[in-house]
Write a structure and sequence with these properties.
This protein has 219 residues and is an alpha+beta fold. The chain has a single domain, classed as Glutaredoxin. Helices cover 49% and strands 12% of the residues. It has nine helices and six strands. The strands form two sheets. The protein has a four-stranded mixed β-sheet with strand order 2-1-5-6. α2 crosses α3 and α4 runs antiparallel to α5.
Length: 219
């Protein structure tokens, strides 16, 4: 049996295109049910200087894009998301969080036997982008962690203590030092990079080439 093809996903949970990229990757994998694949998640912070308590999301978006463009962008994002089965929403009072704690949680999930890191990533994306939950809150994160079999009391305590934050910051720094400046970024079989929320066909081209022992065409 051939070893699983490892797909490393560098992303930030607050990035809507990262959520779309996840769905498009899954669409590609669904077309290759016999292909052994291992998906792992690595941290990247689009706003590393975000206060730990976060900011009002609509105010934060307005500060980046300008108030006049926020609704236009949101409408386009909802349309794009709907095509991928994602109901993007920004309810009143939703926060733009500092995502360090969410990335720490994903890091722990990768190190605990029986915990599905990919399932946790899906739950974090949905909590932020669909339900408008504050995924910068240790209490919210502990509740999400419990849904994938992690101990919520232990998670809450460790998040409040800042456990492994330096490790995760270091991993995010490694991505930037490797030249990754935007997310999502997919590293397939350790050497083939795909930048952005590419269509399923782009993933399939690379995966098929890797499975056949060939070098994929550049994207």
């Amino acid at each position: 049996m051939n070893p699983a093809i490892v797909i490393q996903v560098v992303s930030d949970v607050v990035c809507p295109w990262c959520y779309i990229g996840k769905r498009r990757l899954e669409k590609a994998l669904a077309q290759r049910p016999g292909l052994a694949v291992e998906v792992t998640w690595f941290p990247f912070q689009l706003s590393p200087d975000m206060p730990r308590e976060g900011r009002d999301r609509r105010e934060h978006y307005a500060s980046i894009f300008g108030a006049a463009r926020v609704e236009e962008i949101a409408t386009r994002m909802r349309e794009t998301g709907a095509a991928e089965g994602i109901a993007f929403d920004t309810p009143p009072g939703a926060r733009s969080p500092n995502t360090l704690s969410a990335h720490v949680l994903l890091y722990w999930a990768s190190r605990i036997a029986g915990v599905d890191q990919n399932a946790l990533a899906e739950k974090l994306f949905a909590a932020h982008h669909v339900r408008g939950e504050d995924i910068g809150s240790p209490h919210v994160l502990a509740g999400i962690a419990s849904e994938v079999g992690m101990n919520p009391a232990e998670v809450l305590r460790a998040l409040q203590d800042g456990t492994d934050e330096d490790v995760v910051r270091g991993l995010a720094d490694q991505a930037r030092q490797a030249g990754i400046s935007g997310v999502p970024f997919f590293i397939i079989a350790g050497e083939h990079g795909l930048s952005g929320a590419q269509p399923a066909e782009a993933f399939l081209q690379v995966l098929d080439a890797v499975a056949a022992g060939e070098r994929p065409a550049a994207h």
